[in-house]
Structures
1.
Amino acid sequence: MEKEKDILNMLSSAEAHAGKLSNRALIIQPGAIGDCVLMLPLAEFIKKVFKIGTVTILGRSHYMEYFPTRSCIDSIKDLDSVDMHRLFVSHKDFELADGDPLITAFAGYQHIFTFLGQPGDDFEHNLIFTANCSNSVEVATLALKPPADYKHHITKFYFDSISASCPDYKYRKPSGRYRTKKYLKALKSDLLQGREILSSFGIKKNQKPAIIHPGSGGVKKCWHIDNFYSLAEELLEAGESVIFLLGPAEQERFNKKNIDRLSALAPVIIENSLTQTFQILCSAGCFIGNDSGIAHIASSSGVASVVCFGQTNPDVYCPAGPKVKTFKFGESDFSKPSPEAVSRVSRAALKFLSS
C-alpha cells in the first residue's frame, strides 16, 4: 500500500511539473540594456506567482543575448521579427487573415506582459484579440517607467503594476531583498573566456582588476571624464590593476584624444558584444561607472559595483545586486572635475577590491 502511495505521489508530482512546463509567458520589453536587466526581478516574480514553466522575452535581442542559461529567462526573440506596427492601428480597422504571421507569433502563450502600449489603447485591444486567436491568453499592460515623482525602486513599481493588472491572483509581494539578489549567473565557460580576454590585455590570472566604464547611453548621465581619469590614477597608485571598458556609445562619443589619453594610463577594451562584456565583468574585482546598462549587468552578476548618479535618482534606478554602492552627486561634482568626488568613489572601490 505504501509503495502504491509513493507511485501515486510521484505521478502527481510529474503531472504538476509537466503542467508547469506547458504554462508559457511572453514579456514584451522594447527598452534599452538597463531596462531589460531591471526587468529580471519581475520575470523571476512572474515565474513564481503564475507558476510559469518558460519565459520568453520579445525585445532587442542584442541587449539580451546573454540571458538564456544565465538567468530565469528561457529564450529571447527579436522585436523586429514580429510585425508589431500593425498592432498600433485603430482596433476598428484591425484585421487578421487565416494563418496570419501575427497569430503564429503569439500562439502558445498563456500569459503576455507587455511594456508596449497603454491600458485600454488600440495596441492592447489588438494584442488581446491576436493572442486569443490560438488559445486563451491573459494580457497585462505595464508602464515602462514610473511617474516622475515616484520615490521607490522601479522593481516595486513593476510588482505593484502586476498586482493592479492581475487582481484575481493572491500572493505575497516580495520583500526588500529583491534589490540585493543576484539575477545573472556566469557559466564556467564565461569565467574562462573573461579571464582569457583580460589576459590578452596584460592582466595576470591572479589579478581581479577594477573595470571602469566611463560612458552611458545618455550624455547627461555621464560623470565628467576627467573624474574617471583621476580615479584610475588613484587606483593604480594604490597598487590595483585597471581596465577601461568602452562600448559603442563611447566609441562614437569620445574623440581619439580622449581614448588615447585613457590608453596611456591603462588598457582600453572596446567591445560590441554584450556577452563578451558580461564575461569580462564577471572576472572583475570591482566595477565603477555611471547609471548605465553596463552598470546593471555588473551589479546583477554579483560584481561589486560603484555607480555614479547625476540627474537620475538612485532610489528609483539603483542597480539590483548584492554588492552595490551608489553616489548621488550635485551638478558641480558631476559635470565638472571634482577631486573630492573622485576621492569618495576611490575609497568605495578600494574597499570592495580589498574585501
2.
Amino acid sequence: MKFFCFGFGQVAKYFVKKLLKENYTLELNVSSRQKTQTKTFEGLNFNSYEFSNKKIDKDINAKIKEADFILVSIPPIEGKDIVINNLKKVIKNTQTKWITYLSATSVYGNHNGKWVNENSETKPTTVNGINRLKAEEQWLKYVKENNLPLQIFRLSGIYSDQKNIFKRINAGEAKIVKKEKHFFSRVHIEDIANVLFHSLRKFKRNEIFNISDNYPSSQEEIAYYGFKLLKLDPPSLTKLDHLEDGMLKDFYKESKKVDNKKMKEFFNYKLTYPTFKEGLNNIFNNIV
C-alpha cells in the first residue's frame, strides 16, 4: 500500500504506527520543509521530500501520482491550501482511492455552548478557524471539479503523550481561567489514528466528520483533574481579561459542544478514550 503524507506530524505518525501494528506493508513518502532525505520511523524506511511555497523537490510528483492513499495534515497558509496551490495538476492525475484532509472544529466558531454537528453553521471568528474553512472550501471545490475521492476530518483539540495538561503543569504554563458555560471538545490522538484506519475500508466521497470524544468539558475541569492526578495544589484562578492577546485568549472566544455521532455510526467505532479522564489516566499511568 502506497501512502503519501503531506506533513508528518504527530497525527500522521500515530496513523502510520497503527498501520504497522496491524501488519500492513507500506511504501511511505512524506513532505517536509526540510531538505529531501531518507528517514526511519518505527523500523520503516521512508522518503521525506522538501515541500514549501518557496521550494519543491520535483521528485515528489511521481510519488504523489503513485499513491493509493493521501493524507493532508499541513495547515493553510494565509487562508490557502499549500497542496492545492502548488500541486493541483499533479494530484488531478493520481490514481488515489482515498484523500483525507485534516481540518479543525474551529470552523464552527462560537455557538454559545450549544451542540454542533456536521450540518451546523460555520461562522469562525479566529484566524485559524477562518483559514481552515477557506481551505476546506478549496478542497471541496477542487475534488468536485476533478472527480477525486475526499473526506474531511474536523479534529477537536488533540491531546497525546507529547501534548497534554501534565506537560503544561510541569512547565509552569497551566492557567485555570474561570469562564461560565465555556465548553470545548477534545480527542485523544490514538482515536484519530484508529478512525483514519477504519476509513481505509469504509470510505464515502465528500463526507465531513467531526472527530471528537464523547464529553465536551471546560478547560477548568481538565486542569483541576490534571493537578489532582499529580497531587499538586492548583494555582489561583486567572481572570479572562488578564490574559494577553493570542491563541489562549482566542480559545475563550468560542464555546461549543462537538457532536461525534456521525463518526461513531458511520465507522462503527467505539472510542478507546471516550472522555478526557480515560485519556489522561492512561497517559499518567504510562508516561508521567
3.
Amino acid sequence: MKLDRVYLNFTIALSAVAALYLISGNWKHQLILDRIFVKGDQILTGDEIKSLAGVDSGALLFKISLASVRDRIEKNPYIKRAVVVRELPYYLKINVKERIPVALIAAIQGTHDTSDAAMFSVDKEGIILPVPLKRKVNLPLITNVNQTIAVGDTAKGMLKEAIQLINDAVDLAGETGINVLANISEIRLSNDGLILYTTAPSFEVIVGKGDFHRKLVYLQNFISQVTSKSGFACRYVDLRFDGQVVVRELSKKSLAEVRK
C-alpha cells in the first residue's frame, strides 16, 4: 500500500510539473511585443535606436533574440554598449551607452595631388565618429590633421595628444569649476605640438607637447587675471616654459587696428 501511495504521489507531482510546463509554453506564445523603451540616448534619438533594433511591434516576445538585437544596435559607431532585456508582459527595454563627441575634426584625406577635407568627430577615448549632423554641437575644432582617418579608427600621434588635452581640460573643470575649454575654439596640430586659438579675447596659445594639466592651469589663470583688464591685446601666449607665461604683445599699430 505504501509503495502504491508513493507511486501515486510521484505520478501526480510529475503530471503537475508537465501541466505547468505546457501552460508555461503556451503562456509564452501569447506574449506579443507592444512597445520598446529606450534609455541613455543623447546623440541618437530613441526612434533611431528602435530602428537599429530591427524588431517590429507584434513580434512574439520570447521569439526575439536579445543578443541579435544588441549586436544590431552596437554596429552603430555612436553606440559603445547596449543592454537589451524583456520586461513582462509586453515590452523590451534597451539601455545604451553612447560615445559622446568631445571635438570635431577637419582632416585632410588623400595625397597632396588629390586631397580633400573631411569632417569627423571624436570621443574622449579617441574613437573617430561621424559628425552628429542632427544635433547642435558646440565643440572645439581640431585642424591640420594630415593623416587618413575613418570612422571607427583610434586617434594616434598628435591627434591623440589633442584628445588628451581636451580630457585634461575636462578634469580641470571638475577640480576648479572653471571650464577653460569653453574659451578654446580651435586646436591646431603641428610638428612642434599643439596650438590653441581662443574665443574672446582672441589670441594664439602655443602649448607644445605634454604636461597639459599645468599648461591649462596657466592658461586659465592668464585668461581670468590678465585678459579681463581693459585694453588687453596680444599676438600670442606661449605656455611651454615651466613657471612662466611668455606673452608677445601686439605692436601699437596693430593694437590701434584691433581697437578700430
4.
Amino acid sequence: MGQLQGKVALITGSGRGQGLAAARRFAAEGARIVINDIDTQSVNAAVETIRAAGGEATGAVGDVSKAADVQQVLAVAKEKCGGLDILYNNAGIGYSATKRFGVAMSDILHCTEEDWRRILDINIGGVFLFCKYGIPMLIERGGGVVLNTASIAALRGGTDAHAYTATKGAVVALTRAIAVTYGPKGVRANTICPGVIDTEMIHETLIARDDIRTMLAQRTPLQRIGTAEDIAEVALFLVSDASRFVTGEEFAVDGGLIQRV
C-alpha cells in the first residue's frame, strides 16, 4: 500500500514541471490527483500521463488568481473525488513569464505597476484563494495538509525579480500563520523553497546557456542543478504521514546553494 493510499491531492500548476512531477509521484503512492493548470491542453496531457502509468487523475482547468475559477476547481475535487486531503499550491510565475505572459522579472525601480500586481495576484493571491476555500474542505475530512511552493528567493536577497521575491516571502509567512491557526483542527502547513531547478520556468532564461548552467552547478555544493523529481520527493515527505509532526516550516531544496557566502 502506498504512502498516500486513499488520499485526494489537488496540485495547482501541475500541467508541467514541478507540479507534474509531484502529481506522478503522489499518484504512484496511491493518491487520487486533481490536476490544475491554466490551459486545457496541459491539463489533459497530464491527466493522460497519470492514467497511463496506472494512477487516478481528474483535470480541472482554472486560473489561480480568479476566485470563481478556484472555487470551480475545488468543486471538481469535491464532486469527482469526494473531498480533499492534500492541497499543494504549486502554481506560480517566474522567469518564463516574460515569454508566456509578457510579465517581466525586474528590480523594483524597473517593475511596472501592472507587472507587480499580476505577479502578486498569481504567486500569493492564488495561495490565498486556494487556502481560503480549500482549508475548510481539509477540515471537513478531519484535517489534511497544505503544501505551498515558495523559493530560496524568499530566504536570500537578489538583484532582480523583486516582485517575485516579495511574493515568495509572503508565501513563507502566510504558511507559518496557517500552521498556527489551523493546527488545532488537524491541518499541517509547510513550504518548499526550490533552488535552481531544471524546468521550463527557468530553462530558456537562466540555464539554456552551457556556461551559465555550468557556473550554477559549480556554485551548488552538490555540484548539479536540481530536477523536478528532487522537489517531488521532498513534497511527498511533507504531505505524507512521515512528516506528521512537522508544520510551519520552510524547506530549502537547492543542493545547498543558499549556504554559500
